[in-house]
Amino acid sequence: LSMRANYSQQKIDIFNRSGQRIVQYNTNSLYFQTHFLPITTNRVQAGVGVQQEFFNRARSVGEFQFPSGFSSITKFQGIFRYDNRDRLYFTRNGQYVELEGGLSVNFFDNSQNFSRAEFNWRGFFELGERWVFLMGLRGGLASRSELPLHKQFYQGGFPDFVGYRRYEIGSHNIRMAQAGLQFEFIRNNFLG
Protein backbone atom coordinates (compact mmCIF):
# COMPACT_ATOMS: atom_id res chain seq x y z
CA LEU A 1 0.00 0.00 0.00
CA SER A 2 1.29 3.44 -0.96
CA MET A 3 -0.34 6.71 0.16
CA ARG A 4 0.31 10.28 -0.87
CA ALA A 5 -1.15 13.77 -0.40
CA ASN A 6 -0.41 16.80 -2.54
CA TYR A 7 -1.42 20.45 -2.92
CA SER A 8 -0.97 22.45 -6.10
CA GLN A 9 -1.98 25.77 -7.58
CA GLN A 10 -2.33 26.03 -11.32
CA LYS A 11 -2.82 29.30 -13.23
CA ILE A 12 -4.39 28.76 -16.63
CA ASP A 13 -4.58 31.52 -19.23
CA ILE A 14 -7.41 31.20 -21.74
CA PHE A 15 -6.74 32.69 -25.19
CA ASN A 16 -9.06 33.64 -28.05
CA ARG A 17 -8.44 32.62 -31.67
CA SER A 18 -6.26 35.71 -32.19
CA GLY A 19 -3.86 34.63 -29.46
CA GLN A 20 -4.99 37.30 -26.98
CA ARG A 21 -5.46 36.30 -23.34
CA ILE A 22 -9.09 36.79 -22.36
CA VAL A 23 -9.06 35.35 -18.83
CA GLN A 24 -6.74 33.92 -16.19
CA TYR A 25 -8.21 31.10 -14.16
CA ASN A 26 -6.72 29.81 -10.88
CA THR A 27 -7.24 26.27 -9.61
CA ASN A 28 -6.18 25.22 -6.09
CA SER A 29 -6.12 21.43 -5.72
CA LEU A 30 -5.68 19.12 -2.74
CA TYR A 31 -5.65 15.40 -3.40
CA PHE A 32 -5.19 12.15 -1.53
CA GLN A 33 -4.01 9.09 -3.43
CA THR A 34 -3.73 5.42 -2.49
CA HIS A 35 -2.11 2.75 -4.67
CA PHE A 36 -2.63 -0.91 -3.96
CA LEU A 37 0.30 -3.28 -4.55
CA PRO A 38 2.59 -0.55 -5.93
CA ILE A 39 5.75 -1.50 -7.84
CA THR A 40 8.75 0.77 -7.36
CA THR A 41 12.28 0.03 -8.54
CA ASN A 42 15.14 2.26 -9.69
CA ARG A 43 13.67 2.12 -13.25
CA VAL A 44 9.94 1.29 -12.92
CA GLN A 45 7.02 2.77 -11.00
CA ALA A 46 3.54 1.26 -11.40
CA GLY A 47 0.32 0.96 -9.48
CA VAL A 48 -3.47 1.07 -9.48
CA GLY A 49 -5.54 2.86 -6.92
CA VAL A 50 -7.99 5.55 -5.93
CA GLN A 51 -7.54 9.33 -5.86
CA GLN A 52 -9.78 11.89 -4.17
CA GLU A 53 -9.24 15.48 -5.26
CA PHE A 54 -10.84 18.64 -3.89
CA PHE A 55 -10.36 21.79 -5.95
CA ASN A 56 -11.39 25.42 -6.01
CA ARG A 57 -11.82 27.34 -9.26
CA ALA A 58 -11.51 31.12 -9.18
CA ARG A 59 -11.32 33.69 -11.97
CA SER A 60 -8.60 36.25 -11.35
CA VAL A 61 -8.77 38.34 -14.53
CA GLY A 62 -11.39 38.65 -17.28
CA GLU A 63 -14.85 37.18 -17.93
CA PHE A 64 -15.43 33.45 -18.18
CA GLN A 65 -18.37 31.07 -18.23
CA PHE A 66 -17.06 28.33 -15.91
CA PRO A 67 -18.58 28.35 -12.42
CA SER A 68 -16.37 29.27 -9.48
CA GLY A 69 -16.32 27.42 -6.19
CA PHE A 70 -15.32 24.08 -4.73
CA SER A 71 -15.77 20.72 -6.42
CA SER A 72 -14.31 17.25 -6.15
CA ILE A 73 -13.16 14.36 -8.30
CA THR A 74 -13.09 10.74 -7.19
CA LYS A 75 -11.30 8.50 -9.65
CA PHE A 76 -9.82 5.07 -10.13
CA GLN A 77 -6.44 5.34 -11.78
CA GLY A 78 -3.47 3.38 -13.01
CA ILE A 79 0.08 4.53 -13.75
CA PHE A 80 3.20 3.05 -15.31
CA ARG A 81 6.53 4.87 -15.59
CA TYR A 82 9.83 3.56 -16.98
CA ASP A 83 13.04 5.60 -16.91
CA ASN A 84 16.51 4.46 -17.99
CA ARG A 85 17.99 7.87 -18.85
CA ASP A 86 21.66 8.27 -17.98
CA ARG A 87 20.90 11.60 -16.26
CA LEU A 88 17.85 13.78 -15.70
CA TYR A 89 19.04 16.99 -17.34
CA PHE A 90 20.80 17.12 -20.70
CA THR A 91 20.33 13.40 -21.15
CA ARG A 92 22.70 11.73 -23.60
CA ASN A 93 21.18 8.25 -23.75
CA GLY A 94 18.03 6.47 -22.60
CA GLN A 95 14.25 6.59 -22.62
CA TYR A 96 11.39 7.79 -20.48
CA VAL A 97 7.89 6.28 -20.82
CA GLU A 98 4.79 7.28 -18.89
CA LEU A 99 1.28 5.80 -19.17
CA GLU A 100 -1.54 7.10 -17.00
CA GLY A 101 -5.27 6.47 -17.11
CA GLY A 102 -8.21 7.27 -14.89
CA LEU A 103 -11.98 7.02 -14.64
CA SER A 104 -13.88 9.36 -12.35
CA VAL A 105 -16.87 7.95 -10.50
CA ASN A 106 -19.91 9.57 -8.92
CA PHE A 107 -18.89 9.49 -5.26
CA PHE A 108 -19.41 12.23 -2.64
CA ASP A 109 -21.96 13.77 -5.04
CA ASN A 110 -19.19 14.21 -7.55
CA SER A 111 -20.35 16.34 -10.47
CA GLN A 112 -17.16 15.78 -12.49
CA ASN A 113 -17.51 12.53 -14.45
CA PHE A 114 -14.93 11.78 -17.14
CA SER A 115 -12.24 9.37 -18.29
CA ARG A 116 -8.71 10.42 -19.23
CA ALA A 117 -5.70 8.55 -20.63
CA GLU A 118 -2.24 9.87 -21.50
CA PHE A 119 0.94 8.48 -23.07
CA ASN A 120 4.34 10.22 -23.03
CA TRP A 121 7.62 8.90 -24.48
CA ARG A 122 10.99 10.64 -24.70
CA GLY A 123 13.98 9.04 -26.45
CA PHE A 124 17.60 10.18 -26.35
CA PHE A 125 20.12 8.68 -28.78
CA GLU A 126 23.81 9.56 -28.64
CA LEU A 127 25.14 10.21 -32.16
CA GLY A 128 28.69 10.96 -31.22
CA GLU A 129 30.78 12.54 -28.52
CA ARG A 130 28.91 15.87 -28.71
CA TRP A 131 25.61 15.17 -30.52
CA VAL A 132 22.35 13.67 -29.21
CA PHE A 133 19.21 13.00 -31.28
CA LEU A 134 16.02 13.74 -29.29
CA MET A 135 12.56 12.31 -29.99
CA GLY A 136 9.25 12.60 -28.21
CA LEU A 137 5.69 11.33 -28.60
CA ARG A 138 2.69 12.41 -26.57
CA GLY A 139 -0.91 11.38 -26.88
CA GLY A 140 -3.96 11.91 -24.76
CA LEU A 141 -7.69 11.37 -24.86
CA ALA A 142 -10.38 12.55 -22.48
CA SER A 143 -14.10 11.93 -22.68
CA ARG A 144 -17.14 14.03 -21.86
CA SER A 145 -17.66 17.75 -21.71
CA GLU A 146 -17.41 17.75 -17.90
CA LEU A 147 -13.62 17.64 -18.01
CA PRO A 148 -12.35 20.30 -15.56
CA LEU A 149 -10.06 22.97 -17.02
CA HIS A 150 -7.03 21.80 -15.04
CA LYS A 151 -7.44 18.22 -16.37
CA GLN A 152 -7.34 19.19 -20.06
CA PHE A 153 -4.18 18.63 -22.10
CA TYR A 154 -2.09 21.78 -22.45
CA GLN A 155 0.92 22.71 -24.55
CA GLY A 156 2.87 25.87 -25.09
CA GLY A 157 6.03 27.51 -23.92
CA PHE A 158 9.37 25.84 -23.28
CA PRO A 159 10.05 22.94 -23.93
CA ASP A 160 6.78 21.95 -25.66
CA PHE A 161 6.13 24.69 -28.20
CA VAL A 162 8.47 27.65 -28.15
CA GLY A 163 6.69 30.64 -29.68
CA TYR A 164 3.42 29.93 -27.86
CA ARG A 165 2.70 31.04 -24.33
CA ARG A 166 2.43 28.48 -21.54
CA TYR A 167 -0.94 26.65 -21.72
CA GLU A 168 -1.90 28.58 -24.88
CA ILE A 169 -2.89 25.36 -26.67
CA GLY A 170 -5.47 23.29 -24.80
CA SER A 171 -7.92 20.52 -25.70
CA HIS A 172 -9.67 17.32 -24.61
CA ASN A 173 -7.34 15.39 -26.96
CA ILE A 174 -3.68 15.73 -27.92
CA ARG A 175 -1.29 14.15 -30.42
CA MET A 176 2.27 15.39 -30.68
CA ALA A 177 5.58 14.24 -32.15
CA GLN A 178 8.89 16.07 -31.65
CA ALA A 179 12.43 15.62 -32.91
CA GLY A 180 15.58 17.63 -32.38
CA LEU A 181 19.32 17.71 -31.87
CA GLN A 182 21.34 18.59 -28.80
CA PHE A 183 24.95 19.76 -29.13
CA GLU A 184 27.48 19.96 -26.30
CA PHE A 185 29.61 22.95 -27.34
CA ILE A 186 31.57 23.14 -24.03
CA ARG A 187 31.69 20.37 -21.41
CA ASN A 188 28.23 20.21 -19.71
CA ASN A 189 26.93 23.19 -21.76
CA PHE A 190 24.34 22.29 -24.37
CA LEU A 191 22.51 23.84 -27.28
CA GLY A 192 19.26 22.20 -28.43
General description of the model:
It is globular and about 60 Å long. The protein is mainly beta and 192 residues long. Helices cover 0% and strands 66% of the residues. The termini are far apart.
Write the layout of secondary structure elements.
Elements: E1 2-15, E2 21-40, E3 44-62, E4 69-83, E5 94-105, E6 115-126, E7 131-142, E8 153-155, E9 169-171, E10 173-186, E11 189-191
Antiparallel strand pairs: 1-2, 2-3, 3-4, 4-5, 5-6, 6-7, 7-10, 8-9, 10-11
Strand order in the sheet with the most strands: 1-2-3-4-5-6-7-10-11
Which residue ranges are poorly predicted, with pLDDT under 50 across at least 5 consecutive positions?
Answer: none
Find the structural class using helix and strand composition. Answer: mainly beta
The span between the termini is 41 Å
**Dominant shape:** globular
In total, the number of strands is: 11
- Portion in helices: under 10%
- Main beta-sheet annotation: 9 strands, antiparallel
Strand content: over 45%
Order of helices and strands: EEEEEEEEEEE
Mean pLDDT: 82
The total count of helices amounts to 0
Rg measurement, Å:
19 Å
Fill in the keyword field for this structure.
about 190 residues, mainly beta, nine-stranded antiparallel β-sheet, globular
